[in-house]
Amino acid sequence: MSWKEIENKLLDRFAGAFSDWDRPGDHRIRVRIRPDSLTAVARFLAESGQARFITATAMDTLGADIQLWYHFDLFQTPQVLSVLVPVPKSDPVVPSIAGMLPGADAIEREICEMFGIRFEGHPRPGRLLLPEGWPRTVFPMRKD
Amino acid sequence: MRESIPLDRMHPLFRAGDLFRLHVEADRVASLEVDLGTHHRGIEKLAESKSWDQLPFLLERICGLCSVSHPAAAVRAMEEMGGIPVPERAQYIRTFVCELERIQSHLLWFGTMGHTAGFDGLWMWSWRHRESVCGIYETVFGNRLFPSVILPGGVLRDVDGESISWILEKLDRLRPGMDFLEEILSGDPIFGTRTRGIGILAEETVLRYGAVGPAARASGVAVDVRKDDPYFAYPWVDWNLGLRTAGDVHANAEIRLFEMRESLDIVRQCLRQMRPGPIRTEFRSLPPGMGIGRMEAPRGELFTCLVGDGSHRPLRVHIRAPSMANLPTLEQTCAGADLDDAAVILAAADPCTGCAERMTVVEDAGRRYGILTGADLVRRARGKTERLREGMKGTRSGAEGADENG
User: Fold this and answer.
1) Contact yes or no for A93/A111 (Cβ under 8 A)
2) Which of B328, B331, B342 is nearest to B372 (CA)?
3) N or C, which end of chain A has less CB nearby within 10 Å?
4) Do B290 and A30 touch (CB under 8 A)?
5) Is B367 in CB contact (< 8 Å) with chain A?
């Protein structure tokens, strides 16, 4: 399956879930997604056998949401698909994808302790980098 | 009676602070846990306080082995954000420094893996040749480990004609080192026994875990950013992507040797193809937005995501080093392994040697082992090689005796 075919299938299957489909360069695709569709999209990409989960990047841009980007690579192409899930600071919960993609295990735990986002359904929730005695309500990478 | 000496993970003896916890049943590794965090230095947070042109110098300090890849990935992200053109000569200089980094890192791998498995000759000779590469860094760029040469828009220093001839001569002297490694890989039966069929990483596991770099390529997955998303001068030089399918420690050694030979070739091509010209494009600021920089570091894809708000410094710096993608696969490669092979498998996964020094073995029932340190595990691995050597000597002397009798 080519990248174009995957893109078309994604748009067909999850048309309602995506918004702001953007191509900032030849090799980059950025799209915003509803949090409830994240697991289904990640599963589709993983099962296509053509895409690889790279990592997730969380960032606090001082707004009401924490921006959570999931980056996927398509094998043997220069494309990186970055999927944005805005996570409200008032209720920072998103579904975990670590159960189906073990590569997401560590980064979800890191984001949880650094930004205070809770990943629902994570197989091994717990501390990754911070010491055991670190206060549970202090998130070092948050800017507020 | 065995005594355990509690050595904190921040002990100055250890070069890195990862902790592997192996659960063992009847001399077999039942499961493994990786415990990270001791080495966490908050560099991503610190990076938010640096200006764009200071950033490469900070990121260079993340790792002494990938001291070129980290700034290189960051400048790729910055150049993507700002659409900064890079002069051709700078791209060639960047490429050859990246490939020198790959050679020295792979030679270090042969050393740590060789030492762990009881091949001290392999360790000493590969590190001796690694010193030649560090010598090139030092002579040309002024530092053994941190060349500080890659900057957004180009490179910091040019390489003159005299240095180019000197580097080419130095590279020729590395050829016997590669032949020596080839000899061990293909001709040493004990090395073969200690590495073949050990720590097999299946292709399916690579795909499921998203493993990268030589570990993925040794398992038949052709993933390499230099081919997939070509950058710097890679599109202008000829080189081949190595691929093996066995996925064991031996395949990892083969792929690294192959890559070093290709790297030597790439460096030679870069030095010969470089034409005089500017080495840097000046830039004043970066527009707001996100930039992604990908690099094929020695251990695999290094991914850097930068976000700026139009000011002189980043709003967010996120780095996914290749080891973060590869370490989780150890859960699979170590499961079921002989305890005597565990240290070899962990060393072959290419974390820092310090990681091997930090292993703790916990037995589930009976407390037969007590607590073993990393050094104990390495001792066991080396002991197995010694026993194989002794066995071979016995066979040889037996065979010689039989010949004489015959």
Assistant:
1) no
2) B342
3) C
4) yes
5) no
Mutate which of B34, B36, B290, B323 to test chain A, going by most A C-beta atoms within 10 A?
B290
Closest CA to A6 of A32, A38, A29: A29
Contact A129 B40 (CB under 8 A): yes
DSSP state of B66: S
Number of H helices, E strands in chain B: 17, 8
B397 strand-pairing partners: none
Rounded CA-CA distance B26/A120 in Å is 37
Interface test with B, best of A27, A48, A53, A57 (most B CBs within 10 A): A57
Whether B42 and A140 lie within 8 Å, measured CB to CB: yes
**What's the pTM?**
0.90
Interface touch A102/B328, C-beta < 8 Å: yes
- By C-alpha distance, which of A3, A74, A106 is closest to B223? A74
Confidence of residue B396 (pLDDT cuts 50, 70, 90): low
* B244-259 average pLDDT score: 96
H or E element, residue B110: helix B88-117
The predicted-structure confidence for B90-105, as pLDDT tens digits, reads as follows: 999 999 999 999 999 9
Q: What is the pLDDT of residue B213?
A: 95
Residues B104, B98: Cα–Cα separation, whole Å: 10
Confidence of residue B395 (pLDDT cuts 50, 70, 90): low
Contact B89, B277 (CB under 8 A): yes
Does residue B252 register a pLDDT over 80?
yes
Its ipTM equals: 0.95
Residues 6 or more apart whose CB falls under 8 angstroms from that of B289 comprise: A24, B81, B307, B308
Cα distance from B11 to chain A (closest Cα, Å)? Answer: 16
Q: E strands, B223-335, where? A: 289-297, 300-308, 314-320
Contact B210 A52 (CB under 8 A): yes
Are B273 and B89 spatial neighbours (Cβ–Cβ below 8 Å)? no
Closest residue in A to B230 (Cα–Cα): A78
Q: CA quadruple B373, B374, B380, B382: dihedral positive or negative?
A: negative
For residue A142, what is the nearest residue in chain B, using CA coordinates?
B45
